[in-house]
Amino acid sequence: KGAFESAGKGTLFLDEIGELPAAAQAKLLRVLEERQITRVGASKPITVNARVVAATNRNLDEEVEAGRFRRDLYYRLNVHVLRVPPLRDRLSDVPELVDHMLATMCVRFAKKRKEVSPEALRVLVAYDWRQNNVRELRNIIERMIIAADGETIGAEHIPQEIRDDGAAGA
């Protein structure tokens, strides 16, 4: 089974839809319009009922105008838009995101729950999250969990490049 068939009557999440090559855009548009797929090697189409949610960090209006994203697919996907500002524009979310990521990663790694020191949190909030946003923060939290032996993650456990930039922004 492929993604659409596996989703059944549920929701299929398509991340980074703006990166989809032109040939795949045409195939996706056909599935969305016809609500059918054909498995590789099969001749009989299968009806699919999955709802589609797509995400991208690209400006699809600009991608359409530049000819890199199909206009018809854009309008097919552009039913309800939810814009989430980048992390650098909502730094007040950093403490809560850090807390959530710490909790889930400590469980995932079967480690005792760790805390982040106020100093470390100040550095993380002061950092300019321009590269990968929340993904970058998640990666940094994972690195800090690995680096910290004790129960408290301090500023010294933050990767040097983040500390340098965060200290400059503080």
**Structural class of the secondary elements?**
mainly alpha
Shape type: elongated
How are the strands of the biggest sheet laid out side by side? Answer: 1-4
Q: Strand tally, please?
A: 6
Number of helices: 8
Mean pLDDT: 92
Q: SSE string, helix = H, strand = E? A: HEHEEEHHHEHHEH
Poorly predicted sequence stretches spanning 5 or more consecutive residues: none
Report the β-strand fraction as a percent range: 5-15%
How would you describe this structure in keywords?
mainly alpha, 170 residues, 6 strands, 8 helices, two-stranded antiparallel ribbon
Description:
With 170 residues, this protein is mainly alpha-helical. The protein has helices at 3-7, 22-34, 60-65, 71-77, 94-108, 118-126, 133-147, 160-169; strands spanning 11-14, 36-37, 46-47, 51-54, 115-116, 152-153. The strands form three sheets. It has a two-stranded parallel ribbon with strand order 1-4. Strands 2-3 form a two-stranded antiparallel ribbon. α5 (94-108) crosses α7 and α6 packs across α8. The termini are far apart.
